[in-house]
Amino acid sequence: MIRRDRTWSSGAGTVPASPAAPSNPARGTGVPAGVHRGRGGEEKFGETDRSDAWWLKPLLQALGLLVLIGYANYAAILGPAHYQYVEGGRHYLSPFYSPYLKPAWLPTWISPALLILIFPLGFRTTCYYYRKAYYRSFFADPIACAVGEPRATGYRGETKFPFILQNVHRYFLYAAIVILMILWYDVFLAARFLTPEGHHRFGIGGGTLALLASTTFLTLYTLSCHSLRHLIGGQIDCFSCAVAGGPRHKTWSVVSLLNQHHMGWAWWSLFAVCFADFYVRMCSMGFIHDLVFFPFSLFNNAGGIGL
Ligand code: FES
């Protein structure tokens, strides 16, 4: 049965409110933060007319985040002994530990990864997509569109502490871009093999591919960032009137295209970075033998393509 007093719906299916429905003129959407959350707040928590499996996505997101972030924490905090694998000249460095910094003042019980992880972690935690995901999956606030919320008043969104700190996302973006360049250098080192004669040559091993996939997905995730899109062209009304408007418009168009799939890049990059660490860790612990797909000797008689 369709309730005729609903005002939550957006798009073509919006049902206008019944004149008798709102008894409080302040109620509805668009009221100041902390006053009232709209009609969703009038329902019991979880109550809805939706007949689809609206709970499935928050549930899957919660499980995915628990597994992948749980692994990342294990690798970064408890697993500093196997952060890299060096064999035959190639160097596989776990992305959680890059750039690897271990100053003398760092106590031995603190993992070096913690000096670096603050930046990628801050970047992901403040990401617009992840914010939506963990607000829904872990805080249930809001839990889903057109579903009754846990509280009717007191919601301040990101206008007050602590969530106002989400606005630092842009600064984490700058740090993420720097780290990304370092990760590409790690891919270069992972593709650098040593010949028996002591020359460095190009080659591809399992770790090279794992690090390449991880860094590629991280690049797509970073380049599809909403803040980056805004920085490039989001704040101007007229590209042809702006300085370097043509190149900016082209760049903005590419970033906009990537931005449409930001959620996908967010998940693929998180999975790929965990997998790259897992692969390096398993090689380092001796549980798997690194596969070499294209040994340098295949490339030319002199021992490969020089790097
Ligand atoms: Fe997701 Fe910037 S919005 S990384």
List keywords for this structure.
disordered C terminus; two-stranded antiparallel sheet; 8 helices; 307 residues; single chain; 44% helix; mainly alpha; binds FE2/S2 (inorganic) cluster; disordered N terminus; two-stranded antiparallel ribbon
Molecular structure report:
This protein is mostly helical and 307 residues long. The protein is built from 8 helices and 6 strands. The chain is globular and about 75 Å long. The protein has helices at 56-78, 113-125, 128-139, 169-190, 206-223, 226-234, 245-259, 262-285, and strands spanning 84-87, 90-93, 192-194, 200-202, 204-205, 292-294. Residues 1-29 and 301-307 have low confidence and may be disordered. It has one domain (39-224, 261-297). FE2/S2 (inorganic) cluster binds at residues 127-129, 169, 225-227, 262.
Summarize this, please?
44% of the residues lie in helices and 6% in strands. It is mainly α and 307 residues long. It has a two-stranded antiparallel sheet. Strands 3-4 form a two-stranded antiparallel sheet. The chain has a two-stranded antiparallel ribbon with strand order 5-6.
